[in-house]
């Protein structure tokens, strides 16, 4: 549940990062220690990474070659071309009997107008077993430093309906505001119509909130799968949503203080 930074590049000399100019691809230095593990071995460990932003893509870490365990890399014949970054070469990771095919890439020749990525390597996030920022494990993808999440307790009257049937109603919601995503209303379990909800086997992960489990809604003969979710054990940064339940507003009617909210149009519509 995340969005990518679009067309933004920090202007050199602006340490606060508040001045921008339009670019297709942009990079920023990362002060965090970033580690990636595969088959029980640390294959990258860096305090000098770059984070790359590209229009309509998730952010990606690029690491100095010196911080990558080249002993486990096997060159591949694969190559790809990006008009914004150049020609990429690829490497597989081989440790014991485990191999991650073409999991690493790098741009060994720069092109005019693009960030200079020579001497850096990037990894497909899902190819590695574990990622850590400092000593905290991170899931799904690199965290976007431009994304902000605020969770605020509220006394607003929120009612969730599906086909005119009330699924939840509360005057004590927690509102979650996430950059680029519609407001989500997290509702105490005691304020749910629990008899209308069915536990789902679906589990997803968010790098900013943790692992989510899901509920489907049964209204009459209609079953709407995975219409709500909860973070039973959110990451420590987002404690206020623990055990609360949110619905996909794209598929339900949401009333806030007596006013029907417009359904957002998003990836989940």
Automatic annotation (TrEMBL):
Domain DUF427, residue spans: 37-125, 158-250
Gene3D superfamilies referenced in this protein's UniProt entry, alphabetically: Domain of unknown function (DUF427)
Database matches in Pfam families: NTP_transf_9
Source superkingdom: Bacteria
Entries under PANTHER family matching the protein: BLR5716 PROTEIN, DUF427 DOMAIN PROTEIN (AFU_ORTHOLOGUE AFUA_3G02220)
Protein name (Swiss-Prot/TrEMBL): DUF427 domain-containing protein
Organism of origin: Conexibacter stalactiti
């Amino acid at each position: 549940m995340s969005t990518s930074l679009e067309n933004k590049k920090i202007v050199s000399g602006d340490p606060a990062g508040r001045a921008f100019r339009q670019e297709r691809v942009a990079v920023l230095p990362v002060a965090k220690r970033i580690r990636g593990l595969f088959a029980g071995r640390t294959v990258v460990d860096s305090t000098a990474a770059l984070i790359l932003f590209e229009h309509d893509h998730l952010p990606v870490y690029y690491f100095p070659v010196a911080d990558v365990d080249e002993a486990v890399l096997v060159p591949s014949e694969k190559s790809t071309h990006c008009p914004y970054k150049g020609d990429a070469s690829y490497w597989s990771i081989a440790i014991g009997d485990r191999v991650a095919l073409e999991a690493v890439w790098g741009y060994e020749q720069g092109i005019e107008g693009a960030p200079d990525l020579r001497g850096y390597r990037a990894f497909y996030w899902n190819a590695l077993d574990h990622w850590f920022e400092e000593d905290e494990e991170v899931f799904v993808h690199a965290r976007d430093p431009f994304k902000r999440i605020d969770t605020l307790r509220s006394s607003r009257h929120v009612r969730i309906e599906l086909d005119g049937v009330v699924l939840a109603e509360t005057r004590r919601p927690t509102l979650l505001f996430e950059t680029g995503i519609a407001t989500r209303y997290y509702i105490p379990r005691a304020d749910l119509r629990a008899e209308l909800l069915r536990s789902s086997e679906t589990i997803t992960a968010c790098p900013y909130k943790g692992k989510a489990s899901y509920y489907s809604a049964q209204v009459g003969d209609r079953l709407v799968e995975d219409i709500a979710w909860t973070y039973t054990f959110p990451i420590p940064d987002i404690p206020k949503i623990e055990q609360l339940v949110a619905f996909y507003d794209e598929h339900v009617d949401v009333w806030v203080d007596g006013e029907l909210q417009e359904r957002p149009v998003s990836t989940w519509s």
